[in-house]
């Protein structure tokens, strides 16, 4: 009770300091006067009485000091005083303050921006509660990659597992959407989910409702829920959208709800439909077409759930050996799956690069602080002589640094805001679809807290050493009149040189890293050049199942469309394929070889691609043996296949693959016919990011038409100019077939590389900033060097040294520092390149061109920047220098 | 921090001030200091100034209150008086001291 009252009184007295001080003075004065009166009454003289009274009182000033300490809150008062003092000092040197704050702003701002991006995209791409309890469950054949799930297996897991609060299943479909009134079809990506999918996600709909379990049966499933972005784009965020009907693949669906903005899983889904499997589908254990997500019970760890499911899986393998032998289960956090393999690594790269920039910034600021510390030596000497404690002074200096850091943070937030805005608007629409969370990037509380933390760290890091150095004053030396030993002691100089060297080394590292990555990216962009992607228009066509239910109908459509397009003016080739080379879409399928039974537990798979006959010629794919697809391969005849060289070598070593028959697809899925191998072609890579060669199997699209295919229209002119004509022809053939993603092949490739382009651009910007900061830093160091040694230079010149000797002296210094820095930087860069060569494709670790050119560039910049100060050194007027005090 | 000439514990000074105010009624700082000097005889020599931090402390706790008034010699001075809580504190502190003194006495007494 007493303590609280005391505290409150002390706080209150902070605001009445002046008045309370006056009162204390009056009270003490009254005390002395009363004492004097009493003594005078006792017979002393007035003078003596006063002396006695003061002696009896004791030290007045000291008493007042301890009184004041007890009266207010000393901690806050001192802190407030320090801050006030710091601001005043910084205000007095505007040049230094401005430079430092700007430098810090760049470092802190860029880092905060990157942090916000990382926060939104990598750490929290989905704002759903307890994201760490949501997992994906996939089937695993033990071959490293995992497969989608068969519906009957999902049902078994749901029945037998105790680890999950809810376990949901979904599949993906591409549907042609038309308005209820008809019209041209648009392509939409739909997620078909079980009703409890929304329980797993624990998201409330923004509008309306989600579908119930009763609606997940055929006949009752004519409802859907829109995703937020689709609702915005196609319905203009119209709140009256509930109850409207749209047609998907010629079937009517009613919109019953809209998902909120933060629900972006699956990120590509435009809408959610009820999954209504037939009884047959529910009992199917071989069609691995589904994805499973679940929410664990609180307290259940992922590996516990994994163990339990593995046990269940082995039980199923025993019960259903034909379908389930060799299959196990893999449980993974949803967050990892969303992020994929590349994203976290990209961000780690960017984060380290910007972290580096911050280091360079700190080195810069530290250097500025060193110099300033030297200039303030006289002031500090006086304060020490007057009795200021070292700790007190250190606190003062560090307070200044913190203030600088905080000012830098405030300015940095502005920089960060600009950066994040640029990033958001610069991301292409088509990539945005797949980046869950990108539109959630904002400078939220966490980002601000992050920048505050950086500010404090940067302020301290760049200020501690200079402050400690500044305190090592030799008082006598400093106070001697005329003493201008302002160049600082040897250790200080060495420390400054060390910082300069560090700056140069880090810049070299940054620039070389960015250059290597850019080169790697550049080479990736050109990896598909031999296909002449700039001269090819591509688009995706989807045949609606309702109207094209037989192979005959599909084949007819394909022939007609190919004929029509080939007739367009300027078109040289038109072919179709289900996979574009160097794309971002590759999958493998199991297959069987005739008369070669497979051992249980062993699997063989290949990449299946359906192509039209002229595909190999159009893409200049070399043929090795046999023949390509031709008119012999009519729809009714024995289906033909062409395989890649790797396929032939791997599965038919030492013999010819020609003439053998294979069947694609998993055992039990007996839809696909046996195909006969008629030719062998060279290997083609279908996944740009993974350069390992997979065996390819090409099927004849005329004999086994695919449900959807990519059209490749090669022309000598501008492919995009053909767009409208193509649409016209296709619409004339059948307007209900949606066409999508009409772009040049080059554009398609670029989109896949967007992530890499972003990283490389960011790195380049970082490198540029680093270079700039290093140049500024070196300029500062050299400039101060000359300024401090002005007297020395004056003396030397007076003693007969020539101006060019002084020039040479400064340049030599600069060259020495640069040489050490560059060597160090190159060594670090080589090491880093080795490490990242394994991680990032395209990076050539010891690219001599890059290393040499960057080195030359940095050396040139450094010497250029040192020229100014060096010239000043050469033009020092010895008389002026010696006279200056 | 101003130190007293002899080591007078803060708590003891507080209690002395309170007892002084109890017996003398409202008094200014000089008066309190003189009274303490007189009562303790020459056993205690303290800088009179140290009374003021003690008075501040007591006032912050709410045990005494202050008011500007006029002394007998027509001089303006700040007068201190006991508060209700202060009166209770005297009782508690006195009990404390007597207990401590009794215990110490037992230790210091020649063994019977």
Keywords:
heterodimer, A: 885 residues, alpha+beta, 5 domains, elongated, B: 112 residues, Arc Repressor Mutant, subunit A, 3-stranded antiparallel beta sheet, 3 strands, 56% helix
Oligomer classification: heterodimer
Number of helices of chain B: 4
Strand runs of chain A, count: 23
* Unreliable runs of chain B: 1-8
Please state roughly what percent of the residues of chain B sit in beta strands, choosing from under 5%, 5-15%, 15-25%, 25-35%, 35-45% or over 45%.
5-15%
CATH class of chain B: Mainly Alpha
Could you please describe the fold and organization of this structure?
Chain A has 885 residues and is of the alpha+beta class. Chain A has 30 helices and 23 strands. Helices cover 54% and strands 16% of the residues of chain A. Chain B is an alpha+beta fold. Chain B has helices at residues 10-24, 29-40, 51-61, 84-108; strands at 27-28, 64-70, 76-82. Residues 1-8 of chain B have low confidence and may be disordered. The interface between A and B is medium-sized, with 30 and 27 residues.
Topology:
The complex is a heterodimer of chains A (885) and B (112).
Chain A: H1 2-13, H2 17-41, H3 46-57, H4 60-71, H5 74-92, H6 94-123, E1 134-140, E2 146-147, E3 149-150, H7 151-160, E4 164-179, E5 182-193, H8 197-201, E6 207-208, E7 223-226, H9 228-235, E8 245-248, E9 251-258, E10 271-274, H10 279-282, E11 288-296, H11 302-319, H12 321-324, E12 328-333, H13 334-339, H14 342-375, H15 377-385, H16 390-426, H17 429-432, H18 445-471, H19 475-479, H20 490-525, E13 536-542, H21 551-566, E14 571-577, E15 589-593, E16 605-611, H22 615-618, E17 623-626, E18 640-644, H23 645-651, E19 661-664, E20 675-681, E21 696-700, E22 708-715, H24 723-733, E23 739-744, H25 745-752, H26 754-788, H27 790-798, H28 803-839, H29 848-874, H30 878-883
Helix pairs in contact in A: 2-3, 5-16, 6-14, 6-16, 6-18, 7-11, 14-18, 14-20, 14-26, 16-18, 20-26, 20-28, 20-29, 21-24, 26-27, 26-29, 28-29
Chain B: H1 10-24, E1 27-28, H2 29-40, H3 51-61, E2 64-70, E3 76-82, H4 84-108
Antiparallel strand pairs in B: 1-3, 2-3
């Amino acid at each position: 009770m007493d303590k609280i009252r005391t505290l409150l009184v002390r706080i209150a007295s902070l605001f009445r300091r002046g008045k309370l001080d006056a009162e204390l003075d009056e009270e003490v004065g009254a005390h002395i006067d009363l004492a004097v009166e009493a003594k005078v009454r006792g017979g002393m003289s007035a003078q003596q009485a006063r002396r006695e009274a003061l002696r009896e009182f004791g030290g007045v000033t000291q008493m007042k000091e301890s009184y004041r300490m007890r009266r207010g809150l000393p901690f806050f008062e001192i802190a407030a005083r320090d801050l006030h003092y710091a601001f005043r000092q910084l205000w007095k040197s505007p040049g230094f303050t401005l430079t430092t704050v700007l430098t810090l702003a760049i470092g802190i701002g860029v880092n905060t921006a990157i942090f916000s991006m990382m926060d939104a995209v990598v750490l929290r791409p989905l704002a759903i509660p307890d994201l760490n309890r949501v997992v994906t469950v996939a089937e695993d054949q033990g071959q490293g990659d995992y497969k989608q799930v068969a519906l009957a297996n999902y049902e078994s897991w749901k029945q037998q597992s105790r680890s999950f609060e809810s376990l949901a299943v979904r599949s993906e479909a591409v549907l042609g959407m038309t308005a209820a009134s008809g019209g041209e079809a648009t392509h939409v990506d739909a997620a078909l989910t079980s009703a409890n999918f929304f329980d797993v996600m624990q998201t409330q709909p923004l509008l309306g409702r989600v579908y119930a379990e009763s609606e997940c049966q055929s006949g009752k499933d004519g409802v859907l829920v829109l995703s937020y972005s689709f609702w915005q784009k196609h319905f203009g965020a119209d709140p009256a959208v509930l109850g409207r009907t749209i047609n998907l693949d010629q079937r009517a669906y009613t919109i019953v709800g809209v998902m909120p903005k933060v629900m972006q899983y699956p990120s590509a889904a435009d809408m959610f439909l009820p999954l209504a499997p037939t009884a047959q589908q529910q009992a199917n254990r071989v069609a691995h077409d589904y994805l499973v997500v679940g929410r664990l019970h609180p307290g259940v760890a992922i590996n516990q759930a994994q163990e339990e499911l593995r046990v269940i899986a082995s039980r199923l393998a025993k019960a259903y050996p034909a379908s389930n032998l060799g299959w196990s289960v893999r449980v993974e956090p949803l967050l990892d799956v969303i992020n994929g393999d590349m994203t976290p690594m990209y961000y780690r790269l960017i984060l380290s690069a910007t972290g580096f920039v911050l280091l360079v910034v700190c080195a810069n600021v530290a250097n500025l602080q060193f110099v300033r510390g030297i200039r303030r030596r006289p002031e500090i000497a006086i304060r020490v002589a007057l009795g200021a404690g070292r700790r007190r002074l250190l606190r003062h200096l560090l307070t200044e640094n913190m203030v600088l850091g905080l000012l830098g943070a405030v300015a940095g937030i502005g920089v960060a805001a600009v950066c994040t805005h640029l990033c958001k608007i610069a991301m292409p629409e088509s990539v945005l679809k797949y980046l869950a969370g990108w539109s959630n990037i904002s400078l939220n509380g966490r980002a601000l807290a992050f920048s505050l933390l950086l500010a404090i760290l940067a302020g301290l890091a760049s200020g501690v050493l200079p402050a400690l150095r500044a305190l090592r004053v030799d008082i006598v030396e400093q106070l001697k009149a005329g003493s201008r030993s302002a160049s600082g002691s040897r250790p200080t100089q060495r420390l400054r040189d060390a910082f300069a060297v560090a700056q140069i080394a880090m810049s070299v590292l940054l620039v070389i890293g960015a250059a290597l990555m850019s080169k790697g990216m550049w080479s990736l962009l050109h990896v598909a050049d031999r296909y002449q992607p700039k001269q090819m228009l591509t688009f995706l066509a989807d045949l609606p199942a309702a109207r094209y239910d037989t192979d005959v109908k599909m084949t007819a459509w394909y022939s007609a469309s190919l004929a029509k397009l080939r007739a367009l003016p300027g078109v040289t080739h038109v072919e179709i394929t289900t996979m574009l080379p160097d794309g971002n879409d590759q999958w493998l399928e199991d297959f069987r070889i005739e008369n070669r039974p497979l051992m249980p537990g062993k699997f063989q798979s290949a990449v299946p691609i359906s192509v039209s006959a002229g595909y190999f010629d159009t893409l200049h794919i070399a043929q090795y043996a046999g023949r390509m697809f031709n008119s012999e391969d009519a729809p009714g005849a024995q289906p033909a296949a062409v395989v890649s060289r790797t396929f032939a070598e791997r599965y038919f070593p030492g013999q010819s693959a020609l003439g053998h028959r294979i069947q694609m697809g998993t055992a039990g899925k007996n839809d696909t016919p046996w195909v006969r191998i008629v030719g062998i072609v060279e290997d083609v890579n279908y996944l740009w990011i993974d350069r390992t060669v997979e065996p390819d199997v090409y099927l004849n699209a005329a004999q086994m038409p695919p449900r959807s295919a990519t059209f490749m229209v090669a022309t000598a002119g501008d492919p995009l100019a053909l767009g409208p004509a193509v649409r016209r022809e296709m619409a004339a053939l059948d307007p209900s077939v949606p066409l999508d993603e009409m772009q040049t092949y080059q554009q398609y490739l670029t989109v896949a590389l967007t992530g890499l382009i972003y990283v490389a651009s960011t790195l380049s910007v970082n490198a540029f900033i680093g270079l700039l900061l290093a140049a500024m830093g070196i300029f500062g160091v050299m400039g101060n060097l000359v300024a401090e040694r002005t007297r020395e230079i004056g003396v030397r010149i007076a003693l007969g040294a020539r101006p060019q000797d002084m020039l040479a002296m400064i340049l030599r210094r600069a060259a020495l520092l640069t040489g050490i820095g560059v060597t160090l930087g190159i060594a670090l860069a080589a090491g880093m390149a080795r490490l990242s060569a394994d991680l990032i494709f395209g990076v050539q670790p010891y690219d001599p061109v890059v290393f040499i050119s960057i080195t030359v560039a940095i050396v040139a910049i450094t010497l250029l920047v040192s020229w100014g100060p060096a010239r000043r050194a050469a033009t020092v007027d010895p008389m002026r220098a010696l006279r200056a005090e | 921090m101003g130190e007293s000439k002899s080591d007078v514990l803060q708590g003891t000074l507080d209690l002395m001030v309170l007892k002084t105010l109890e017996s003398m009624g409202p008094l200014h700082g000089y008066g309190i200091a003189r009274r303490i000097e007189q009562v303790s005889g020459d056993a205690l020599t303290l800088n009179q100034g140290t009374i003021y931090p003690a008075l501040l402390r007591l006032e912050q706790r709410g045990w005494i209150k202050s008011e500007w008034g006029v002394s007998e010699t027509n001089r303006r001075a700040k007068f201190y008086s006991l508060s209700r809580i202060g009166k209770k504190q005297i009782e508690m502190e006195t009990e404390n001291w007597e207990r401590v003194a009794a215990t110490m006495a037992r230790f210091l007494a020649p063994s019977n």
